[in-house]
Amino acid sequence: MVRNGSITLSDARRILRNYWWIVVFSAGVCTTLAVALAFLLPKRYTSQTIILVEQPTVPTEYVKPIITEDLNHRLASMQQQILSRSRLLPIIEKFGLNPKNGEDLAVDEVVEKLRGAVRITPMESMPGTQNRQLPGFYVNVDFNNPQLAQQICSEVTSMFLEQNAREREQQASRTTSFISRQLDEAKLKLDEQDARLAKFKRQYLGSLPEEEQTNLNLLSGLNTQLEANTQALNRAQQDQAFNESLLSQQEANWKVAKTGVNPETTEQQLTALRDQLATALARYRPKHPDVIKLQDQIAGMEKRQKQVPEVATPGNENSQAGVNVSPQAQQLHAKLRQDELTIADLTKRQAQIEKQTRELQARVQASPVVEQGFKELTRNYQTALDFYNELLKKRANSEMATDLEHQQDSEQFRVLDPPSLPEKPSFPNKPVFAGGGLSAGLALGLSIMYLLAFNDKTLYTERDVEICLKVPVLTLIPTLDLAAPNFSSLKETNL
């Protein structure tokens, strides 16, 4: 009797001793049914191939790969493309898998069946390796015919190889084309910035930041030249004044020697008389005797002054060519002419230096504003130049990567083993079915034995009596085994 749903070890031995044949019978029946089912189910054969991912022959330090997408993602994308309806229909037509009635629904069912028959399994990396990149993958094709399974597996493998090579080459070409277009646009922007910078330099030539120190040095030199020119001009003007005074003295002496009259004294007397006349006119009327007397004196002195012969001067040399002058006066005239030329030249030179000084001062004053604009243009030009050089390097790397794709020296898929021709069906697996049937039979037999033990109300032990009847046990009658040897000898003795 099973108490509270629990079975003791003695109960288990008793149940097994009484109902062991149930387990054997259920295990045999289930195993037989499983093996029969394995023979009756349609067989499926699996063709398998291994595709390895070969790394580029040129190290990535020299040529950076264009395609950096994870291989698992690319593999999933290629699988979706290869197992699409448009890609599977040629395989169906090639191997005659079309349904006989030719209905669209049946064709779709064949496509779904073929899509479910293809399995792509990534290959796991070796344990302990630091490289997490996918080393390869398996292509498995399950079909009811081993030859067809091998042929379909071969087709799918070829499609993976072609799809990978085509996608890599197209992506490399598109990348190179895109970078080339960007490079052309960057070249136009760089030329535009270069033209702006050249125009700015032409516009502010002499005021550029790199010319500031040169302008300061030139300004310092011009100040020195201006100071020297001013000193030379002052000396020339002093020489001219000195020569003019010497010439005046020579002329006065020559007049005195010719006429005996000192023209300077006559001139002074004439000036004094004119001053007296002006004073008299301020006090008297024009017909006053004093005024008339002064006018007669002035007229007589002017008449005598006109009678004195003139001395040749630089302004009337041609008119007085016939008048004899002293050699000293002629030398002084020559010096005065030279002084005039020197003063004119120094004055012109001083004006030029002052003009250049003002221009340089204007350049130096405008230098901060010009420097700000120049920095902005230079910064834009340098940014455009850096971007252009970066694109130039990327295009060179992209062209090399494209060449690697054309030469198939980049990452490639390589078939390690050709698709296998299965000799035994992968489904159903008879040993697996037999083992499953045996396990199911044992489980069924044990379940039946438990149900029988659970429904058995027979009292087998003293404990069962006390629990069921709820009364104490007074005595026990032992079980007599009539077949025992001791019992037989005892019975013969009694007889």
Q: Summary?
A:
The chain is mainly alpha-helical and 495 residues long.
N-to-C series of helices and strands: HEHHHEEHHHHHEHHH
Radius of gyration: 66 Å
**Number of E strands:** 4
Uncertain runs are: 310-324, 487-495
Terminal-residue CA separation: 40 Å
CATH topology of the domain at 210-316 and 323-384: Helix Hairpins
Main beta-sheet strand count, sense and barrel state? 4 strands, antiparallel
Strand order of the largest sheet: 2-3-1-4
CATH class of the domain at 210-316 and 323-384: Mainly Alpha
Quickly give the structural class.
mainly alpha
Which oligomeric form is depicted?
single chain
Query: What's the rounded overall pLDDT mean?
Result: 77
Helicity level: 55-70%
Overall geometric form:
rod-shaped
CATH architectural group of the domain at 210-316 and 323-384: Orthogonal Bundle
Q: How much of the sequence is in beta strands?
A: 5-15%
Total of helices: 12
Structure, explained:
By secondary structure, the chain is mainly alpha-helical. Among the domains are: 9-40 and 431-494, no CATH class; 210-316 and 323-384, Orthogonal Bundle (Helix Hairpins). Helices cover 68% and strands 6% of the residues. A four-stranded antiparallel beta sheet has the order 2-3-1-4. The chain is rod-shaped. The two termini are 40 Å apart.
Features:
4 strands, 495 residues, 12 helices, 6% strand, 68% helix, 4-stranded antiparallel β-sheet, mainly alpha, Helix Hairpins
Explain the layout of strands and helices.
Layout: H1 9-40, E1 45-54, H2 71-82, H3 85-94, H4 104-117, E2 118-122, E3 136-143, H5 146-203, H6 212-259, H7 263-283, H8 289-307, H9 327-406, E4 412-417, H10 430-455, H11 462-469, H12 485-494
Antiparallel strand pairs: 1-3, 1-4, 2-3
